[in-house]
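Listing S7. Sequence submitted for prediction.
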Amino acid sequence: MNAINKTQPRVVGLNVPAEVGMSLDDVSTPALIIDLDALDKNVASMRDLIAKMGMRHRAHAKTHKSADIALHQIEHGGACGICCQKVSEAEALVEGGITDVLVSNQVVDTKKIDRLAELAKRARVLVCVDDLGNVDNLSAAATRHGVTIECLVEIDCGAGRCGVRWGEPAVEIATRIGASDGLVFSGIQAYQGAAQHVHDFNERKQKIDVAIQQVADTVDMLKAQRLKCDIVGGAGTGSYYFEGNSGVYNEMQCGSYIFMDADYQRVRDDRGNFISEFENSLFIWTSVMSKTKVDKAICDAGLKAQSVDSGLPVIYGRNDIEYIKCSDEHGVISDPDNVLKLNDRLKLVPGHCDPTCNLYDWYVGVRNGKVECLWPITARGMAF
């Protein structure tokens, strides 16, 4: 994997929290650190699981927004390409060396469509569509720029966000794509995002079973119109084993598996156990900045260091202390036995990894207690 060489001159003013070769204890806090051994295990586990199911994996880069990690997923994890959510994300990742990218979202603004067409001169570009007028605009841009843009018809299979109804509405759009200059109909996008964090196994399975049936029916209707789906894509970290064994989907789009977070570790399998295929590899490295109370400590990782939309972080490897509250710059830690002291370092598992990563400029890659690499968060803040 690419890293900043430790012999490089020190760069000032780029908010770099560490240097290659330094001890983890010397990394400035709060920082976003990666346990490289755990990350490598997660990549290998997904590679083996996908191969066993006979699937492709288009790893979702909205989780990490890093060209270095995306390349590692392709080179070592068997990923066929990557997904991202915005044109600017795609541009940054292609600039970083990615050559096969699906914008698993709608692109409808004319300027963004033009940028998407420009990007198709440098990489294989796919995009999701759920509107006939959008098909026409994509076709016009592709023709104008002399490129081909591949399109997936997105169906709403339960998330209640983007996507048309399964069946005839999807067939109508696919037909229009197939007849449009500069466009190729490549298949279906069917991601049930609302099911990913349903903690109960049976409830989660029920939601995905409905989606699988809708997708299967739509694929059959497309076949009847001689419209072939090269890609039937979807599935996330919380549901991949359902879609992967469905016989309907052929391409997974898992993202959070690479890091895991506190909420994903509340998702249970069919035996009532937490899903254990993947390990925590992403942590917020924080330090105790105040200890004036006997029963609590204050750390330097507050709201500006993490997203708490899926709950507060969990202190990794500790059951004697608990992160209980946060404000802009401070985290409050319950310390009933008064074991913490100033400058103690702690690993926090964020409640939701994706938006947390978007708050940082760098990943600090750590192995055996030493900083091994620094990776820029390539597409940080790229939301358009």
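Caption to Listing S7: primary sequence and predicted structure tokens for the chain studied. The radius of gyration is 22 Å. The CA atoms of residues 42 and 181 lie 41 Å apart.
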